[in-house]
Specification:
- Helices cover 34% and strands 26% of the residues.
- The protein contains seven helices and 13 strands.
Length: 284
Amino acid sequence: MVNNTRLVLQLRLRRSGEDCTFVDKLSNRPPHMKIRFRKSLGVALVALLVGACQPLAWQASPSLANTDVPVDSTITADPQTEAVIAPYRRQVTEKMSEVIGFAPEALGKAEYESPLGNFVVDLQIAQSQPLYGKPIDLSLTTNGGLRQPLPKGEINVGDVFELMPFENELVVLTLDGSTVQELFDYAVEKKWAPIGGATYTVKNGKPTDIKIGGQPFDPAKSYTLVTSDYLAGGGDDLNMLKKATKTEKVGLLLRDAILQQIRQLTAAGQPVTADTDSRVTVLP
């Protein structure tokens, strides 16, 4: 006599919140039928695992928390950390506080030309030319690269780091005449690109009467230009400089050139001043 049994087989899968249940009931079946059915059921279960319950794509549930911690006098310094930092802080403070020169007047920025702009473009030639070993025709910087004015009175190393905090290296570019023309067009348009070694007049928004080294600009000639590697690579939208026919490293950081210039002036008993002769004439 066949036992009146009831087989309940249940499979539950939980993936990404999905609940799939498979239930089969065997009731009042002879044993050989149950065995065959169970074998078939095993195959069916494998298929069910593979394809029946497709997992949902996992989705993150991001949450934002306010983790801002104000850094002010209410935070107590960690004594162990302070003990490690203190010797280095003293060294940096001593170095940055070293007085290297004196300026009778502050050197600041302005449109077209300025005391600070003239000072930097002139020293770029003065400090690069001995290393380059040949005359350099032009020099270029931008107001954006000169971060702070040089103060009136004592000038220390920290002032120079504030003026030039970047690790920009000086390079000499060889430019053809058409590229030099683009450079002067840029200087007139932007009004923030001091150029050393040249004079020019702004008329109707265009550069005219360009003179380089006191001689009329010759579009058929090539000229050398000293500037930072940042500007040479097209920084501050000076993309025309990337057309240089030759790029040569000077082997001197711009900041180091500024430090050297000031130290040399001091050693010669001279103050830190800029050439104030007019280089750019703007016609109404």
